[in-house]
Amino acid sequence: MKERFSRLLLGEDMSGGGKGVSTAAAISNAITNLYATVFGSCHRLEPLPVEKRSMWRREMDCLLSVCDYILEFFPSKDILPDGTAREVMATRPRPDIYVNLPALEKLDDMLLEILDGFQKTEFWYLNDKGHKDSSDDSAPCRPASHRGEERWWLPVPCVTKLGLTESARRDLRQKHDCASQIHKAAMAINNGILAEIKIPDSYTQTLPKCGRASVGDAIYRHMSFPGKFAPEYLLDCLEISSEHEALEAADRVEAAMHVWRRKANHGHSRSPWSAVKDLMESDKNVMLASRAQDVLLCLKQRFPGLSQTTLDASKIQNNKDVGQAILESYSRVLESLAYTIVTCIDDVLFADESTTKI
């Protein structure tokens, strides 16, 4: 613990020369690194080992304890022994921490509870047992995976030729739905926190002068069409097939969104005609910015495992608010864990469906 907090105080600069990162960035990195240490190899549906669970609880309690001292003052009344009332300034947790931190801790407990529910399963993983295929219906079948060669290093689940029992299948689907809801909740909290973090000047300086140049002519024509806008249809037309392409599109759309927002917020201090013209242009920029936000949200929903956009990474790196850094990193790692559980359950259900098709 002394080493952990020393690194936080030094800003990860072991030379002590004061060239380290900010406290907010240091705590954010600490939570991210702790998650990678504890859950980095969590690619199977099984309870978390006792030592890793203990490490996660112990070190997260220390990191989250910082939030106990992030307070705000508010006017209150203090009653003296003689009955006299006097006004004093009392303290309470900052609203964003008071609302979001208990919710994240509850989601954390629920995810570990889901993993604890896989102590006895009707499936196993390819490297767990040296089973061989045979003509017996009760014998294990060959493993099936829908990932292909995309993530060849991940363990492949196996089930018997008869497949899972109905109760096991129902239990898996319930856990899948629960993990999906947790993923959506963590994502919503993370998006809310990121939206509150100030956009760094280093990012705004790199924005293009024209939003159309950022998204390209094809996307711009869809977004500027005066009729009803459907972001799902636009993404279907783009035929994005990989997370790399999705992240590239998200970066371009997000940059254009902020260009249009900046133009819409631009003041009107010109002649009357110019002011009217700017107002009309501003309305168009508002529409384009709103549609860009819809496309960005649709992209994140279609690719739930999408990496951080350039803006998100820039916000996290330059953020100085310790409370926001804790909430953002905590929600981000829980979002990642929930998504991992969902994909692992999908793998097992796919293996089970493959047996019924044989």
From TrEMBL:
Species this chain originates from: Avena sativa
UniProt protein name: Uncharacterized protein
